[in-house]
Design brief:
Oligomer: single chain
Order of helices and strands: HHH
Structural class: mainly alpha
Helix content: over 70%
Strand content: under 5%
Radius of gyration: 56 Å
Number of helices: 3
Length: 131
């Protein structure tokens, strides 16, 4: 009889079943109470967060539009501006033109001086030859 389990009486089984049935009934009552009341979720904090996100999105959109307009203006200015190498080339050509003009002006002045001297000496020679 050492290997036999003690027998549980019918009375004990009935008490255990009654206790469990009471627990099930209590759970059922809690479920009924919970389902009878409508669940109200407080969305005010969520609405505030959503409105803040919307405001931040609007602000970001405005900033992006401003940046795009500034970039567009810079692009327009860049298209109208001459590249640096063209400006340098124009300055070099201008300086070369001025230099050549001065050189040929000086040569012309020298030429007119020499021409007037030649006329003078020719006239002098003609005068001497006439005498």
């Amino acid at each position: 009889m050492a290997g036999k389990k003690p027998r549980i009486s019918v009375q004990d089984i009935a008490e255990i079943l009654v206790q469990r049935i009471e627990k099930v009934e209590q759970s059922a009552e809690r479920i009924e109470v919970a389902t009878s009341k409508p669940v109200k979720v407080d969305l005010t904090e969520f609405k505030q967060l959503v409105s803040q996100v919307i405001q931040m999105q609007k602000k970001t959109t405005e900033e992006n539009k401003y940046i795009l307009s500034v970039l567009s203006d810079l692009k327009k200015k860049e298209l109208t501006k001459l590249p640096n190498y063209i400006i340098v080339a124009l300055i070099v050509l201008f300086c070369a033109f001025i230099g050549v003009s001065i050189y040929f002006g000086k040569k012309h002045q020298d030429y007119t001086e020499i021409k007037s001297q030649m006329k003078f000496y020719r006239n002098e020679l003609l005068k001497k030859n006439k005498k």
